[in-house]
Design a protein that fits this description.
This protein is of the alpha/beta class. The protein is built from 12 helices and 10 strands. The chain has an 8-stranded parallel β-sheet with strand order 7-5-4-3-2-1-10-9, sandwiched between helices. The longest helix is centred in the middle third of the chain and has 18 residues. The protein binds zinc ion.
């Protein structure tokens, strides 16, 4: 099986983006991996600090390793990790990639923390990919009434600053702030700054990751991929679909979890399928 780094080169060549979907439990895992298998596509499973506490970090690693042993390209990402302690625990547990999120800190502090974790990660596992983030995009994976405070054009990532940040930290992947926002904003779809994506891509030379993909229009996604986005994160949409599916499932008198949860899995599979097809030009 190819490594995640090799799949990213594959995505670059084909001008597609690898889907990244967050899960909290085995139902989410089932929905994402089964859909990726049906479409014969690589996929990344994300677990944030809260999500990995719920599913269990060792359990998530074991589930992904089992599927990798069957030669299915599924990779595990320790999504938004805020502290050195939590980062070290995830790296030691055997994740394939990790995101250090210190974007809310000063550039100096962000650089210092990110570099420290890159050094630790590479000393433990030379194959692990580390993602850094500059420019603020909000923190919630929820339904939002309006744009979160602190998110604006002024906080979008500066291409030159991004290059310096990469040089100073040694990260493998960059999550820029380009008009994207975490969560789904009720007042309308966030609009991506395609020019900014292109400008960053032209200067940095490492794969770009788009966070806060939920709620962005298909057309905007296509343009972003063309401009250089190689991984796209979807979380909130999946959560909404799961909850609605379970609500349907609970309407029957069924008490077997694998029956009343099945509707939730199906709803999630629909979202994953639609997104994967869009991101991979299918
Ligand atoms: Zn994110």
């Amino acid at each position: 099986m190819k490594s995640l780094r090799e799949y990213l080169s594959w995505a670059e060549e084909k001008c597609v983006a690898i889907g990244h979907f967050n899960i909290s439990d085995s139902e989410g895992f089932k929905a994402v991996t089964e859909t990726a298998h049906e479409l014969n596509l690589p996929v990344i499973i994300g677990v944030s600090e809260g999500e990995r506490e719920f599913i269990g970090l060792a359990e998530a690693v074991a589930m992904v390793k089992t599927i990798q042993n069957n030669n299915q390209p599924v990779f595990l990402n320790a999504d938004h990790t805020y502290s050195i302690e939590k980062a070290k625990i995830a790296i030691d547990a055997g994740v394939d990639c990790i995101i250090i999120d210190a974007a809310e800190k000063s550039l100096e502090e962000n650089t210092k923390l990110t570099k420290e974790i890159v050094d630790y990660a590479k000393s433990k596992n030379p194959k692990i990919l580390v993602e850094g983030e500059i420019g603020f995009i909000g923190k919630s994976s929820n339904l939002l009434e309006s744009l979160p405070e602190g998110v604006s054009v002024e906080t979008q990532t500066d291409p030159k600053e991004a290059l310096q940040f990469i040089k100073n930290t040694g990260i493998d992947l960059l999550a820029p702030s380009v008009g994207n926002v975490h969560g789904i904003v009720k007042t309308g779809n966030p609009k991506l700054n395609i020019e900014r994506i292109k400008a960053i891509k032209d200067i940095v030379g490492i794969p770009l990751v788009l966070h806060g993909g939920s709620g962005i229009t298909d057309d905007n996604f296509k343009k972003a991929i063309k401009a250089g986005i190689r991984i796209i994160h979807i979380n909130t949409e999946l959560r909404v679909a799961y909850k609605e599916g379970i609500r349907e499932g609970l309407k029957s008198r069924e008490v077997a979890p694998y029956k009343f949860l099945a509707e939730g899995v199906e709803e999630m599979k629909e979202v994953v399928k639609e997104r994967l097809k869009l991101f991979n030009n299918l």
